[in-house]
Structures are given as structure tokens and as C-alpha cells.
Specification:
Blueprint: E1 11-15, E2 21-27, E3 35-38, E4 41-44, E5 57-61, E6 65-73, H1 77-81, H2 89-97, H3 105-109, H4 113-120, E7 134-139, E8 142-158, E9 164-175, H5 176-189, E10 195-198, H6 205-213, H7 219-225, E11 239-242
Length: 251
Amino acid sequence: MSILGELEKMLIYKLDDKGNRSGEPITVTINPEGYKETFAVEYNQDQPTNSSGTKPKFVKVKPGDFTFKLLFDSTGIFDIVGLDISETLDSIAADIAGFNPFKDDEADESNIVDEINKIKELVTYKGEMHMPYELEIAWGSLNLKCFLIKLDIDYKLFNSKGYPIRAVATLTCKDSTADKLREAEVNKQSPDLTHIRRVKEGDTLPLMTYRIYGDSKYYLEVARVNNLLNFRTLEPGTELFFPPLNKTQTV
């Protein structure tokens, strides 16, 4: 056993309709050297009529995209790289330099077709759902539930019979868990939905309007909807109705 402990492999699970792991996972033979996480922020660019221009209004942070590059290799070169740590770097380098993946019939028969086919299955339709599987990728501290939105396979090396023996698969996945949590939060806070708020001590109508819409300029419309004759003094405990916001309206 290595003095560094057993190497933990990345696992890729398919999930059923209830979000539970289904079947045996794909075990990534060679862990990626890293992965990339990307976020995009969406803004509403609509402008009110006869407006000289206003700042873009924040809409949401889109679910994160994760990109993984997975190496598949059946040449046997990584068996040499994994030699006992007590060996010198010079001896390892010499072994790699003299390595020939086609030196015998057994090596010539090896390929990565089965491993690649398992990865390709991740973009197949899921029965009656008519959509790809939701995935769970587990590796160390990473536990990601996601949908695979793009798969690129770059074949690098072939044996004498034309079968691939080295390839790099690039998986681009969209975080599905964060999306569900974000949608739940947006549904509670969105200015495009109706809200009812109870007035607290120190609240003013412009302040409450700002909290809901991100802009206090709609307070006159809120006062009109609630039939407030004296909106400058709000009675604590009063319930106010905040209607859905028309993003292009002006007051």
C-alpha cells in the first residue's frame, strides 16, 4: 500500500427520477488534474419608453457550469508512472523513455472502446422521460448533481488495428442542485410576483418598495394600489400589497 494512502477515484453516477443513484457508477481510471467552475450573471436590458437609459437590472445568477477533462489510456504507460515511490526519478524516466505500447500482441489488443462507450451512455435518453440522465459526480470534497450539456471526445492514439488506446473526454455539466435551490429562493423573492408585507416600526413606503423591487421609485404605485391616503406615516402591523412589477413601466 502506498505511504500516501489509497488513491480515491472519481465516480460518476446516473440518477433516477427521484434523484437517487441508479446502477453501478463509472469509475474514472485516471483522475483529472483539475476542473473548471463557471458562473454567469444575467441582467435585464429592457429600457422604459422615452428613457435616456438606466442601469441594467440584476435578474439572477445562472447555475454553475463545471468542465472536466478525463484522460483514458490503455497503453500501460501509467502503470510505469505508478511505480514504487522509492525508485529514483532517473529510473522512472528511463522506463518511460523505453516504453513501447506495441511491443507484444497483448498490448496490440488493448483499447479504450468500452470505457468511452460508458461515457457516451451519459448523453443517451432516459426511457420514457425523453431526456438525458441527471448525474452525480463524486470526487473528494466535490459532490455535484448535474446535467451533461456537452461531451467532446478527442482521440489521441490508436493501436495497429485502428482501435483508440488514448483519448481525452471533455464533459461540460450544469449544476442541477443549485438551480433547484435558486429557483425556490427566486420564487419567494421575485419582484415579478405578488408580495404581502406587514409594516414594522421604522418602515417607510419607499424603503419597503426598495426591498421588494430593488428600486424605491415605485412607491407611488404601491400607495395607489393599497388606497393609502397618507403614505408618509405607516401604521405598524398594517399589511400592504405589492403587485407584480412591470419591468418597463415608469411612474
